[in-house]
Design brief:
The protein has nine helices and 14 strands. It is an alpha/beta fold and about 300 residues long. Strands 9-8-7-10-11-14-12-13 form an eight-stranded parallel beta sheet. The longest helix has 20 residues.
Length: about 300
């Protein structure tokens, strides 16, 4: 990019469906073959009305910062709670390449992050996917996994408010795979090959006693220090992987809480995407339980933003 080039302005409408999830996961994989990213987060304001800025630099790819305001009271006024933009800068001259809707970057990044984890860790012949949660993340994950795992025959959706699970299932009525809402979570978990948690829970919703050998577990929802979705038993019986050691181990309750309690140790975090991209073993047997923690760091925003520009 030269200084004479004009930055691109990308809205959600500029990135049309269907999403090529294979291309997005390949972009993340390629990004982790570059030098390790440098990341920084800055929080300003009061709880419930704050500004979050997440910045990253990846040598050879560029610089990026995603800034969003988070106003908890907005939905009551018919306004989105999260609003913002992603700025992507050139790696060689520092020119502004693009301004991209932050929601678009986050939505694609989150699902592609988990989908890449599953490509590394889930059994490729997996037939049943269980998703806990019925929000936008759950919908994107279902789309991504459906595209990347053609062996899937059944997708189950559980949500504390069952009507929301039913509504999400109905939105996939035209899908080639059978998608249905369920109420018996322990039963569904015990028969699923891949389990995704995409909730806002601060206490475990997925129990280790339900999860059978060979299952891949994808933990998305917990993003703050007090949040977690998996119980101690699950973390102890599975092999644990993360997207980035730097943005998960000391930042997210899913790992911080059990580590501080001595349930697991940092040594139990076996690899992140940098390790896996370099050839570190992921799944090593059909019977092991693999657990992936999606932390969604700022470096993944940069990789995703670059992929968005390449796709439009």
């Amino acid at each position: 990019m030269t200084h004479s080039d004009q930055p691109r302005y990308v809205s959600r409408a500029d990135f049309s469906a269907p999403v090529d999830w294979l291309n997005l996961t390949e972009a993340l994989k390629a990004g982790h073959r570059l030098p390790k990213a440098k990341v920084e987060d800055v929080f300003l304001g009061e709880p419930g009305s704050s500004l979050l800025s997440r910045s990253a630099w990846i040598e050879g790819l560029g610089y990026g910062v995603k800034s969003v305001t988070v106003f908890a009271q907005n939905p009551a006024q018919g306004l989105p709670s999260v609003q913002g933009a992603m700025l992507l800068f050139d790696h060689s001259q520092g020119g502004l390449r693009a301004v991209i809707d932050s929601g678009l970057v986050t939505d694609l990044k989150t699902a592609a992050d988990s989908a890449l984890g599953a490509r590394y860790l889930a059994r490729p012949d997996s037939e049943t996917l269980l998703v806990l949660g019925a929000g936008a993340v759950a919908g994107n994950v279902i789309s991504a996994y459906s595209q990347l795992f053609p062996s899937l025959r059944q997708i189950l959706i559980w949500n504390r408010t069952h009507s929301k699970a039913e509504a999400l299932a109905q939105s996939f009525e035209s899908a080639q795979v059978n998608v249905q809402a369920i109420t018996d979570l322990p039963e569904a978990a015990s028969h699923s090959d891949i389990i995704v948690t995409a909730t806002m829970s601060s206490t475990p919703v997925l129990m280790g006693e339900w999860v059978q050998p060979g299952t891949h577990v994808d933990l998305i929802g917990a993003f703050r220090a007090e949040m977690r979705e998996a119980d101690d038993a699950l973390l102890q019986k599975g092999r644990i992987f993360v997207d980035s050691r730097d943005t998960t181990i000391h930042h997210i309750g899913e790992l911080m809480i059990p580590i501080s309690a001595g349930v697991i140790s940092e040594a139990d975090i076996l690899a992140d995407f940098y390790d896996l991209a370099a050839g570190h073993a992921g799944r090593t047997s059909e019977q092991e339980i693999t657990i992936f923690k999606n932390g969604g760091g700022a470096h993944l925003d940069v990789m995703t933003a670059d992929a968005i520009l390449g796709a439009i």
